[in-house]
Amino acid sequence: QVQLVESGGGLVQAGGSLRLSCAASGRTDKDDVMGWFRRAPGKEREFVAGITWSRGITYYTDSVKGRFTISRDNAKNTVYLQMNSLKPEDTAVYSCAGAPYGTRFLQANEYNYWGQGTQVTVSS
């Protein structure tokens, strides 16, 4: 059973930076895809960024390209989301999720494992 634990959320002013971490335990080689999703109050869950453990392939939603960077440390079984130039509209609960090899990044319903989420609040 894969368990995901996020950390690194908080309150930051617009233009600031935060780095989120997602520590994965119990992962096997079949659990290759990792994604970051977010849900803002009153809005639907949104894909933010994804990465594969095996080859480091990354994918971003358009609104975060050039500002956010997803990376992974296979030795630590940890995925990171570096968020720079944060905007108030980035305010949301951010969750990491894991999916089997070959899963399309954007398909939230294909992710099997989810963390508990971490709050990111960007003040204007």
User: Shape, please?
Assistant: globular
Span between termini: 40 Å
Estimate the helix proportion, in percent.
under 10%
Radius of gyration: 13 Å
Low-pLDDT segments: none
Give the strand content. Answer: over 45%
Number of strands: 11
Main sheet characteristics: 7 strands, mixed
- What are the secondary-structure elements, in order, as H or E? EEEEEEEEEEE
Mean pLDDT across all amino acids: 96
Description:
With 124 residues, this protein is an all-beta fold. Helix content is 0%, strand content 50%. The protein is built from no helices and eleven strands. Strands 2, 4, 5, 6, 9, 10 and 11 form a seven-stranded mixed sheet that branches. Strands 1-3-8-7 form a four-stranded antiparallel sheet, with no helix packed on it. A hairpin with a 6-residue loop joins strand 4 (33-39) and strand 5. The model has no long low-confidence stretch (mean pLDDT 96).
Question: Would you summarize the structure shown here?
Answer:
By secondary structure, this protein is an all-beta fold. It has no helices and eleven strands.
